[in-house]
Amino acid sequence: MLFSSTAFCEDFNSWSYTESPKGGFISQIISTDPKAENVVMGISVNFFHSADKPTMHVRTTANVIRSEGIGFRVDSNPPVRFEFSTCTDKSCTAIIWLDELLLKEMFEGEIATAAFFSTKKNQITVPVNLSGFTNAYSKLVNSRQNTTQ
After folding, report:
1. Is the pLDDT at 33 greater than 80, yes or no?
2. 57 and 128 in contact (C-beta within 8 Å)?
3. Which residues contact 55 (CB under 8 A, 6 or more apart)?
4. DSSP type of residue 121
5. Which of 45, 64, 129, 131 could cross-link to 13 by cystine, CB 3.0-4.6 Å?
6. Distance CA 9, CA 13 (A)
7. Partners of 24 in beta bridges
8. How far apart are CA 17 and CA 63, in angstroms?
9. Among candidates 102, 104, 95, which has minimal Cα distance to 134?
10. Cα 125 versus chain centre, distance
11. pTM of the shown model
12. Is the C-alpha dihedral spanning 114, 46, 55, 105 positive or negative?
C-alpha cells in the first residue's frame, strides 16, 4: 500500500516555511553553488521537541570534529557554542533550544555565522542569511496557534 503526503511550502526570502503531516518548520539550505548541489549546512527551526520552546537543528556534513561542537554567532553579538547531538556516516546535527536572547538576535540580525572544524582541522565558517527569518518564524508560530484552536 502506498501513502501520499502533501506538504505546503512558502518562501520568506532566505527562509522557507513547510507544513507537513508531522507539523510545520522553517528552514534554510546553505550550499557552495547556485544549484544547491553541494550542500554545506542546513538549518531548521520547529516545535517538534516541545510545544512551548522552539529548537534549531543545524545539520552539517559528517566530516567534522564532533568534540569541538559548533559555534553560532549573530552579527557582532557574542558567539555561543553547542555540542553535536548526533552523527551518522552522512551528517552531524546539533539541536539547539532557542532561548529568548538568541531568538531576539536572529529577529534583529542580518547575518549569522556557524563555525565548526573539519576532520582536516580546518575551521569551516558558514554564513546564514537572516533575511526573512522573522516573517518565517511568525508564520510557524501562527500556524501552530491555528492548529491548536
Report:
1. no
2. no
3. 45, 46, 47, 48, 49, 95, 96, 97, 98
4. S
5. 131
6. 13
7. 19
8. 28
9. 104
10. 15
11. 0.88
12. positive
d(CA 99, CA 102): 6
Q: Which residue has the higher pLDDT, 146 or 41?
A: 41
Sign of CA dihedral 82, 85, 90, 91: negative
Determine the Cα–Cα distance for residues 137 and 102; give it in Å rounded to an integer: 13
Compute the distance between CA of residue 48 and CA of residue 38 in angstroms, rounded to an integer: 27
CB atoms closer than 10 angstroms to residue 17: 23
Residue at 38: amino acid letter: N
43 grid coordinates: 538549518
Structural element, H or E, at residue 82: strand 80-82
Average pLDDT over residues 120-132: 95
- CA dist list (Å): 91 to 11, 29, 57, 63, 108: 25, 14, 12, 8, 30
Quote the CA–CA distance of 68 and 118 in Å, as a whole number: 10
b or e along 109-132 (b: 16 or more beta carbons within 10 Å of the residue's beta carbon)? Answer: beebebbbbeeeeeebebebebeb
For cell 532557542, what's the residue?
98
